[in-house]
Amino acid sequence: MELLPRPENRHQAALLGLLRDNGRLSRAELGDRVGLSRSKVALELDRLTDLGLVEMPGLARSRGGRRSHLVSLGSGLRFVGIDIGATSVDVAITDGELRILAHTADEIDIRQGPVAVLQHAVSLVEKLRADGSAPQLHGIGVGVPGPVSQREGAPVFPPIMPGWNHFPVRDTLSARLGAPVLVDNDVNIMALGELHAGTARSVRDFLFVKVGTGIGCGIVVHGEVYRGVGGCAGDIGHIAVDESGPTCTCGNTGCLEAYFGGAALARDAEAAARSGRSDVLAERLRATGRLTARDVGEAAAAGDPAAVALIRDGGARLGAALATLVSFFNPAMVVIGGGVAGLGHRLLAEIRSVVYRRSLPLATGNLPIVLSELGGTAGVVGAARFVSESAFSTLAEADPRPRRTPGSVP
Ligand SMILES: [Zn+2]
Predict the structure, then answer these.
(1) 281-304: average pLDDT
(2) How far are the Cα atoms of 8, 221, 289, 331, 361 from residue 365, in angstroms, in the given order?
(3) Measured in angstroms, how far is the CA atom of residue 153 from the centroid of ligand 1?
(4) Which helix H or strand E contains 82, and what residues bound it?
(5) Does the CA dihedral 244-245-246-252 come out positive or negative?
(6) Cα 256 to ligand 1 centre (Å)
(7) Which residues 6+ apart lie within 8 Å of 405 measured at CB?
(8) β pairing state of 333-337 and 206-211
(9) How far is the CA of 26 from the centre of ligand 1 (A)?
(10) Which of 114, 161, 183, 207 could make a disulfide contact with 167, Cβ separation 3.0–4.6 Å?
(11) CA 261 – ligand 1 centroid, Å
């Protein structure tokens, strides 16, 4: 793999992060923000220009006195975000500011195993690069729907990913695509996408709750994802709601996810259809042979009382769990995303009413609970953001892989 240029010190790293998150800035503004003198910031920027990491496209408007040079990230910087879900894979190429330049998606089945799914992802990346717009990749971020060991760059005991346990996703993709790769849980990746480009742009401490087939929570503290000691922080789908409840995919009983989430909702909707409690759902089940969260949402929108009750009960369960988390974490915002968030404002209203009722007023006084506005792109943008954090940091602080022996690093 070609050695990519990277910042040589923490000042250069901070400058790159500012340019990624704010777009072009003047040299004077950059100096103010990192607290460096004009001459020192000019020196660091000259060095970054030599490395091809920044460009100076012209002069900024005058703030009185001499006009300052405008600075932007190198126009040739390219990141790739790969968001692998249970049934789909999304791939995007971004520039240094993580704007999506090209995006494609395809259906997959995660149970086909890592060899087939990763090959599919690689072919999508190659398809996007075929026009020559991304000759060199500066990093590839990958989200997978299961817990990930950062050290191994591999999923570890992922419940819905048979065949993926300890499979070297990072090293496989890195070898195939010739660029550094970082892998994380999809929920953490989506939280980073919300931080970079979503509603949570304005805050530094928030919870991102993904309600898809299962339920997970990304925890962002001071603008960084908190992963916990083993990398499984935020795995709220398996919080015990009621020990005598239904059996969960994890083998325990009464987990939050066994009550609510895409899989539980489909199960309960089919039960409602079969028991005669919902004519609308029964008709849909007859037509398609199975029901999904989307069917529940559409039946509720048509006024079906059983579907409305399913969303209300699920929202109340999730809301009760979130009320506990809000009291514990005191976030500035809660963002709800994932496929089931498509149930929309009926779900949101139920979650809000429970959280606001059950959490302390001090914790909820200014707490927005909102639906994600990013739709399908939170994962790919967040994956690109994740790997950019490594690419835009010095070698000493960047790499979660085992270090080379001290002294061998220049
Ligand atoms: Zn469970």
Answers:
(1) 92
(2) 43, 19, 46, 11, 5
(3) 24
(4) strand 79-84
(5) negative
(6) 7
(7) none
(8) parallel
(9) 51
(10) 114
(11) 12
